[in-house]
């Protein structure tokens, strides 16, 4: 292979890995996808070092290494699914390396995402149904209140997240907002059990995927990534709890 081929191959692998990490993928899946791309390109042996904040990749027995920094991370499994699909198409010979690189660049720039109105509906449905699941009570009077509180918390969290890069502030503000909505609803008689409402309304912000991926990474041997993501999930949960706790004395 020429140096241009090697550069394109590593750049393609790192782009795929960066998109997957930004989408919240498990680290073992990122390593596996990047290794499969190099194998399917006809290059055996690639050295990878992946963390939540950066990727280092190099070809074995070659004095050539590339590094990519990860600036943002979120839970967007659509990114992970699209990269996996493109990798399978490349393995099947349906895409060339240049076409794979082009599709990955397009995916990084224009990620398909659900419209905001559908996300709002999803947050409301999740809040209402999770209240039933966790409380084991069909409290039909509190279900609409839990849905509204969950929607408000989701909207505030999303808006704050777009305004600032300071982590955990968005979760704290969203939890505070949903707690205030719950307090107001209970004061005017639109809610019977504030505990049940708060449990359901907080569910759209709970870092369940991050906790699961943290445990999965540690079981796969990625101790650094697993501990890092675990601490990130714990701090997110603490921010949500603190936002709700600020309002609890007024119930």
Automatic annotation (TrEMBL):
> Mind telling me which PANTHER family this protein's record contains?
SUCCINATE TRANSPORTER SUBUNIT YJJP-RELATED, UPF0442 PROTEIN YJJB-RELATED
**Protein name, please?**
Integral membrane protein
| Compartments where found | Cell membrane
Output the Gene Ontology cellular-component terms. Answer: plasma membrane
- For this entry, list what GO says about its biological process: succinate transport
The residues covered by the Threonine/serine exporter-like N-terminal domain are: 11-248
Q: Which family does it belong to?
A: Belongs to the ThrE exporter (TC 2.A.79) family.
User: Is Membrane found in the keyword set?
Assistant: yes
Q: Which organism is it from?
A: Lacticaseibacillus pantheris DSM 15945 = JCM 12539 = NBRC 106106
Membrane spanning stretches: 113-134, 140-160, 172-190, 227-248
A Pfam family annotated for this UniProt entry: ThrE
Identify the domain of life.
Bacteria
Keywords linked to the UniProt accession: Cell membrane, Membrane, Transmembrane, Transmembrane helix
**Topology of the protein relative to the lipid bilayer:** Multi-pass membrane protein
- One GO MF term attached to the UniProt entry: transmembrane transporter activity
